[in-house]
Amino acid sequence: MCTAISYLSHDHYFGRNLDLGYGYKETVTITPRRYPFRFRRMQTLSEHYAMIGMATVMDGYPLYYEATNEHGLSMAGLNFPHSARYLSEKIGWDNIASFELIGWVLGQCADTLQARALLEKVRLIDIPFRGDLPPAPLHWMLCDARSSLVAEPAADGLKLYDDPAGVLTNEPPFPYHLYRLADHSHLSSAEAEDGAAYCVGMPAIGLPGDFSSPSRFVRAAFVKSNSVSSGPGAGDVRQFFHILSSVAMPRGSVRLAGGEYDITRYSCCCDTRRGIYYYTTYDNSQIIGVDMGREDLDRDALITYPLMDAPQITIQN
Amino acid sequence: MCTAISYLSHDHYFGRNLDLGYGYKETVTITPRRYPFRFRRMQTLSEHYAMIGMATVMDGYPLYYEATNEHGLSMAGLNFPHSARYLSEKIGWDNIASFELIGWVLGQCADTLQARALLEKVRLIDIPFRGDLPPAPLHWMLCDARSSLVAEPAADGLKLYDDPAGVLTNEPPFPYHLYRLADHSHLSSAEAEDGAAYCVGMPAIGLPGDFSSPSRFVRAAFVKSNSVSSGPGAGDVRQFFHILSSVAMPRGSVRLAGGEYDITRYSCCCDTRRGIYYYTTYDNSQIIGVDMGREDLDRDALITYPLMDAPQITIQN
Amino acid sequence: MCTAISYLSHDHYFGRNLDLGYGYKETVTITPRRYPFRFRRMQTLSEHYAMIGMATVMDGYPLYYEATNEHGLSMAGLNFPHSARYLSEKIGWDNIASFELIGWVLGQCADTLQARALLEKVRLIDIPFRGDLPPAPLHWMLCDARSSLVAEPAADGLKLYDDPAGVLTNEPPFPYHLYRLADHSHLSSAEAEDGAAYCVGMPAIGLPGDFSSPSRFVRAAFVKSNSVSSGPGAGDVRQFFHILSSVAMPRGSVRLAGGEYDITRYSCCCDTRRGIYYYTTYDNSQIIGVDMGREDLDRDALITYPLMDAPQITIQN
Amino acid sequence: MCTAISYLSHDHYFGRNLDLGYGYKETVTITPRRYPFRFRRMQTLSEHYAMIGMATVMDGYPLYYEATNEHGLSMAGLNFPHSARYLSEKIGWDNIASFELIGWVLGQCADTLQARALLEKVRLIDIPFRGDLPPAPLHWMLCDARSSLVAEPAADGLKLYDDPAGVLTNEPPFPYHLYRLADHSHLSSAEAEDGAAYCVGMPAIGLPGDFSSPSRFVRAAFVKSNSVSSGPGAGDVRQFFHILSSVAMPRGSVRLAGGEYDITRYSCCCDTRRGIYYYTTYDNSQIIGVDMGREDLDRDALITYPLMDAPQITIQN
Q1: pLDDT tens by residue, chain D, 317 residues
Q2: A199 catalytic, yes or no?
Q3: What is the ipTM, given to two decimal places?
């Protein structure tokens, strides 16, 4: 389970918590402009926008969890196990496999308007990346600095929703989350005005704190919409991670049937204007950045950086 | 406002979030055994247990926020603005000012049993540290690896409570929080057994997520009691900070009357057996440690380390 | 706003709270079999099933709020102001105005299976009963002793949903309510097993108690699904009204923009097998019954009984 | 478990829900002025104020659940099983058994001021009414038209609290409930002002709806403080029962360990100025009144009226 956020402060930032019980050797992966982006049923994109994000690279192909391209358009796939429906392919549509969608969109679109137009032609088809890898049931959040969009694969095609909250978590389908958010619109970050208050924060009592998907949605939206950054750059980045921390999963709080635990394996924050991808991991709270601007983006080969996941503790004395 | 936690994993850890609108030039402060600990109405402790913790050092005196002594006994003061009552001094009691209490207890007691016995003789008196510094209204949590204790200054003296949750936040008086915790005892971190569940985490729906003191208490207790560490040492320390993050205050979520914001200025975690004090700050997520064992604890002068508060970001490429 | 309930105890019962700021001279109205049921775009039903329910009779036409027919099929219209969409008429469909729907269905169907088949052909059209009476935005619950159904008029036609909860309130569209119900499936009416409980009822803490539509849905479903009747007949009827009372609106709890209040103007319970319609009103708690079996159901004229709304208090001494 | 309420509308009303798994042959009982009120350790009151309320009369003695005296002072005992402590008798105090307290206070006091003064001298002693009837663990609510008071028997004596909410339920001790009420002081009965609302009642989302004692306290206080009566007399009385209904226990919602259910056996509402005691029962929703003014209050014998508990349904046709 996951939480993705679009945050407009002094600059625009996009990122997410990846909450899972296990990892897939994911790496920070830059796809330069001339990497030949292949698609099972569509023409290869031999030139396209460069992008940076987290991906499992398999057989030389970047299976992105989320990414931002050189124009700042960002996109993340999040778990959607009960409701996602992939279809059989059909002529007249852009037949795209779920694992191809981020590359297909970020490779060609510079903003959410273009992305929406492209997505309206997409048919998400039921093809696995490999025989041993069934398609992950996903929905997607896209954003640029101006707006956010959610795309959900339903039985009658890909549904597109405006996302005024700039947040996405998991089930149920997106409209539910906006209603849940409305349910909490009377909550406030302000100090109580009446004399009954005995501590700070009381006008937000009722804000959910469990780790279910709707509760993370509401909590993330509340913390984000009230968020105040200490300043541009590092201040914004740190603030972004504070927002993500408020909906992160500590090991033990979400126990799965098999005795495993969902934890926030990594949190990331992309400075979408500068193309710098920051991350922390469950074991390493140190913020690490990978700067797309430091790479030759006209190459044709993927560039990957393994996660710096080892605990880093500095002893001051 | 604050949250303090006692956490027994592979070792015992104690720490807290300090949630305030502003700082007081606090430093990690080690008080060695021969520092002459002076008290306004009691005899100076010319020899005592060494301790490490966060303090504002003023006029050469350590005003501790929380500390751990060389036997692992730990103690933190937390804001208690509506209910704290300090009294006039009285013969037959150990007349102690609120700002002296942590030094008085940690200087002389090796565990909570000794601390309870000492506290039963204490009368908290209404003396300011300086004319321009009125006594902060506080209550205290104490713990060793086996048990936790809460001390609250009421109009009829210092109330002592067992704290089976090993958590303390702020108002109202402590018994309220245990009742609130009982209100949530049917919530679970386990996966839902019935078919109605559409996402993970649903059996904990109802867990509060706002930043009021009772809600932080319940959330911290839930996350802590379900916590699973990845291993001893760094694993435990990182897990401790994950627990604290789940009740941390991002800037903006708690707005004060004057337009300020309560934020989690620092989070700390003391390995009480080894005497290593770890901390992070709002602006710096990197874990910093100060190891009491690296100092000469037989000195008579305070040892202080300023907070490493500057944002630290490592660029990986 | 309203709450409708299907309750299977020793017999099957159907009823609802009608929550409004004002009344429309509603009467308990029996439509006998030969009342010529006219429809704006469809053939008149000159013979049909008899039905009993609450209606405003206007220009000789029964505008039913809810009713039960002689086979026990029941149907209620509930407020659905944000989402209801009525369409322009279209050839090939049964073009029915919203105010005609209850008569159309209950006049011809004996159970929910037949009703579903009939509703699949229905197109709800945007015709007012009179120029000064714009169509009320509604959705409908239907039930027999075996199952419940919800029908919602959307922009792309009438949506039909199974309603396993046997409850309907108002906005948002029906699927939301089932998700909300799932959110509370870990709550229980049983006594707490652990020692932390300090009073009865604690394992249901988290059950909502406000008067919004989703909260009434969840509360009604909880109370109904745990309901235990004292016995058949009067015991069941009284139990039904107890369930409805748990989601009734006391005057003052829901203030409208104009200074009015939504209140539960009447509550009703139809013994669907015997065709007895029971009701109470806001001002009169005495249960009044109207028995369809006592009327000549082969007549062609409506039979109406005004609400006995005056407070009835018996002085015992 | 129970809920007691003081309600000031056009007149002052006091009443309660009695929520229990079983009954004790309770009757509406009038104690006239010359009934010799005997006390185990105190002088008999041979003349005293008359009172009316619900009582089990045993061995000729009225064991009141709640009552109102001829001056309008009212008092109810409510279950307090975890916290009530009765003491051994002690010279210098008014040693009163718990089952005597209502008679002792209502027999002698005309308002809450006098009651408070009397209660300050009371020591509640641990004497059963009969060997086979251990003292019920109770706390009490008292009120007149101006103010309410709560009395709780603790280990160090009877605690008296002002009760600004005019509500009492059960555990935990009273101060908890006022804090819980403050936790909900940002909830409102008004219509939402922002555009996010999709139904009425949303600004009260967060109001608890389960049947635990603190949740009934908060819900009753919310409904009562927002209550708007339709008019004096019958309007007020009916409104009072609507308030009580909002916290009543339908059979099945609260299951006890032995397989029994707590239900609202009776609800009552005393017009404290006129001395008319109204009630309904679980099985009979008809409001029944017993008017103290119709009796000869100078008698010396108890006057009792059995509960009219049989279901009353009027068939209108």
Answers
A1: 799 999 999 999 999 999 998 878 899 999 999 999 999 999 999 999 999 999 999 999 999 999 999 999 999 999 999 999 999 999 999 999 999 999 999 999 999 999 999 999 999 999 999 999 999 999 999 999 999 999 999 999 999 999 999 999 999 999 999 999 999 999 999 988 777 799 999 999 999 999 999 999 999 999 999 999 999 999 999 999 999 999 999 999 999 988 899 999 999 999 999 999 999 999 999 999 999 999 999 999 999 999 999 999 999 99
A2: no
A3: 0.96
Q: How close A231 gets to chain B, by Cα (Å)?
A: 11
| Domain assignments of chain D as residue spans, ordered by start | 2-306
Give the span between the Cα atoms of A190 and B129, in whole angstroms.
32
Cβ-based contacts of B154 with chain D (< 8 Å): none
Put simply, whether A294 touches B (Cβ < 8 Å) is yes
**Record: fold of A2-176+249-306:** Penicillin V Acylase; Chain A (3.60.60)
Sorted by sequence, the CB contacts under 8 Å of residue A99 that are 6+ apart come out as A63, A129, A135, A136
Maximal CA-CA distance, chain D: 68
Phi, psi at C259, each rounded to 5°: 90, 0
The architecture of the domain spanning D2-306 is: 4-Layer Sandwich (3.60)
Which of A82, A183, A185 has the highest number of chain C CBs within 10 A, making it the mutation to test binding with C?
A183
Under DSSP, is residue D218 helix (H, G, I), strand (E, B) or coil? Answer: helix
C-alpha to C-alpha distances, B125 to A80, B81, B84, C191, nearest whole angstrom: 59, 16, 11, 46
Neighbouring-strand partners of residue C290: C277
Residue with tokens 């040492």: B233
Alpha-carbon distance D245 to nearest alpha carbon in chain C (angstroms): 6
Report the candidate in D135, D197, D145, D187 with the shortest Cα–Cα distance to residue D166.
D145
Selected residue of A170, A176, A181 to mutate for chain C interface (largest C Cβ count, 10 A): A176
Max Cα-Cα span within chain C = 68
Measured CA to CA, the distance from residue D37 to residue A155 in angstroms comes to 77
| B214: chain D residues, CB-CB within 8 Å | 179, 183
Q: Which residue in chain D is spatially nearest to A186 when comparing CA positions?
A: D203
- Confidence (pTM): 0.96
Contact residues for C53 (Cβ-Cβ < 8 A; gap 6+): C28, C29, C64, C65, C66, C67, C68, C102, C268, C270, C277
Dihedral (Cα; C170, C172, C178, C184), 10-degree rounding = -90
Report D:162-191 residues touching B (Cβ under 8 A): 172, 175-176, 179, 183
Contacting D residues, span 108-137, partner chain A, CB-CB under 8 Å = none
Residue type, B170: N
